[in-house]
Design brief:
about 190 residues, 10 helices
Length: about 190
């Protein structure tokens, strides 16, 4: 066989044994964008965009009847990039909203000439999904005017989410003069 010969489409792919690898090959997904490991927010956004491209490529190939294997489920299409639950709880919740903020979109794509503080409103060593969530809720800033909002944000970041937030609420209640057991005395 000639070294320059292209294998025929009927020839089995090297990744035919692993359906996920075959899907990655067929859709042309970059290997560096696959896997479940931790990464930066810009990498997560790049994975999200690659998922959207893969989704559209699959749709086009199916419509043109050029998709050569069984059509993957939505979950099978998500999982080369990130777990299904993480995709829905983080990627799908936050990244679609970014298009309304060109400066943030450029920052996530690594194309922003602005300093982090100009985009986020505060300077931090790293930014994660919890930062992006607050940033979106505050319509494009992490700079919080209200001291109470800032404290709540800090607690959620350090603590265990809602459980830690409830602890803070209990503490605030005690500071306002509510003593433990006061409500049970009133009930009698």
């Amino acid at each position: 066989m000639d070294d320059d010969a292209v294998p025929s489409p009927a020839a089995p792919l090297a990744s035919a044994v692993d359906p996920k690898a075959q899907l990655i090959d067929l859709l042309g997904i970059e290997a560096r964008l696959t896997g479940l490991g931790e990464g930066s927010l810009p990498l997560a956004y790049e994975k999200y965009k690659a998922f959207l491209v893969a989704h559209q490529t699959l749709k086009d190939m199916v419509e043109n009847r050029t998709w050569p294997i069984k059509r993957p489920t939505q979950t099978e299409l998500i999982e080369p990039f990130v777990s299904k639950s993480y995709f829905h709880s983080h990627y799908a919740q936050h990244f679609p909203k970014v298009v309304d903020y060109p400066l943030m979109k450029a920052w996530l794509e690594g194309e922003s000439e602005s300093a982090d503080v100009d985009v986020w409103g505060v300077k931090k060593a790293t930014y994660g999904f919890s930062d992006l969530k607050v940033w979106l809720e505050n319509e494009g800033t992490l700079a919080l005017d209200d001291e109470e909002e800032f404290e709540r944000y800090k607690v959620v970041k350090r603590g265990k989410g809602k459980g830690r937030e409830k602890d803070l609420e209990k503490k605030k209640g005690k500071e306002k003069g509510h003593k433990k057991g006061e409500s049970s005395k009133r009930a009698k």
